[in-house]
């Protein structure tokens, strides 16, 4: 692992160990990898939380939430969808790692639009954590390392699919930002969670404002015809549509 960012990965390739977590990494969607077969699953390892299945159609190993680990590891789409619905109903203490694994398993079971939403929601929930809590503290260092690994390793596949339809991607991105603002992560306010200097509520509000600004900046960029055309050309040249836009 390089600087704590990289984890073992199969099929999707070794991700670059750099970049900001909050950014949506448009470059991921226009991947510079050579054309390859369609990416049907996200085969990554982020210890101790997730180990992709070693054989096609086998179940992964999931260790993010005892109440949902078995269903998240299921190869049945309905089981994974039940976790999604449960989290929608009650999510105040759901960790960013759980949301990341939910996104991966939604992708793997063919529910890729939902995967995009929850991947962005996971990144944005973590962004609020990083603004309020001291993620450099020993108590949270593993969390920070794991979420960065999930974002870097799963990002190319999920963003690769998301940008098959830019308008839809933008809709999902905005919806995820709104969801994080409307569903604050209660753990941020727990006294046992080490905090950054300042008032926690004010820091949370600042985090939400930063997320909204990042979403707006990406929307403005992709609204420019020249930017959008160049982006589409890069995806076409790199075979991204063949890899990620399968039905």
Which strand-content bin applies to the residues? under 5%
The H-and-E topology, N to C, reads as HEEEHHHHHHHHH
Low-confidence stretches: 1-27, 30-35
Mean pLDDT: 88
Which strand order does the major sheet show? Answer: 1-2-3
- What fraction, in percent, of the residue positions are helical? 55-70%
How many individual β-strands? 3
Per DSSP, the total helix count is 10
Class from helix and strand fractions: mainly alpha
The global form is: globular
Largest sheet: 3 strands, antiparallel
Q: How far apart lie the N and C ends?
A: 34 Å
CA-atom Rg in angstroms = 17 Å
Describe this structure in words.
- By secondary structure, the protein is mainly α.
- The chain contains ten helices and three strands.
- The protein has a three-stranded antiparallel beta sheet.
- Strand 1 and strand 2 (50-51) form a beta hairpin.
- The protein is globular and about 50 Å long.
- Residues 1-27 and 30-35 have low confidence and may be disordered.
List the helices and strands and how they pair.
Elements: H1 26-29, E1 45-46, E2 50-51, E3 61-62, H2 69-73, H3 77-89, H4 96-108, H5 112-132, H6 141-162, H7 166-182, H8 200-222, H9 225-237, H10 240-244
Antiparallel strand pairs: 1-2, 2-3
Helix pairs in contact: 4-5, 4-6, 5-6, 5-7, 5-8, 7-8
Tags for this entry?
single chain, 247 residues, mainly alpha, three-stranded antiparallel β-sheet, 10 helices, 3 strands, 2% strand, globular, disordered N terminus
């Amino acid at each position: 692992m390089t600087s704590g960012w990289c984890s073992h990965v199969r099929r999707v390739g070794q991700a670059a160990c750099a970049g900001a977590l909050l950014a949506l990494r448009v470059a991921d969607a226009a991947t510079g990898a050579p054309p390859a077969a369609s990416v049907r699953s996200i085969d990554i390892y982020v210890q101790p939380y997730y180990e992709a299945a070693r054989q096609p159609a086998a179940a992964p190993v999931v260790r993010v939430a005892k109440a949902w680990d078995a269903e998240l590891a299921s190869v049945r789409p309905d089981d994974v969808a039940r976790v999604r619905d449960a989290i929608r109903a009650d999510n105040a203490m759901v960790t960013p790692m759980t949301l990341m694994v939910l996104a991966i398993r939604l992708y793997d079971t063919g529910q890729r639009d939902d995967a995009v939403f929850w991947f962005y929601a996971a990144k944005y929930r973590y962004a609020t954590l990083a603004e309020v809590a001291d993620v450099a503290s020993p108590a949270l260092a593993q969390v920070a390392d794991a979420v960065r690994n999930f974002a870097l390793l799963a990002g190319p596949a999920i963003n690769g699919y998301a940008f098959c339809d830019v308008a839809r991607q933008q809709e999902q991105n905005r919806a995820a930002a709104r969801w994080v603002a409307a569903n604050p992560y209660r753990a941020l306010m727990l006294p046992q969670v080490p905090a950054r200097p300042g008032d926690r509520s004010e820091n949370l509000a600042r985090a939400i404002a930063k997320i909204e600004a990042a979403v707006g900046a990406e929307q403005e960029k992709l609204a420019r015809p020249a930017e959008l055309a160049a982006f589409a050309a890069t995806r076409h040249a790199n075979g991204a549509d063949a890899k990620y836009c399968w039905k």
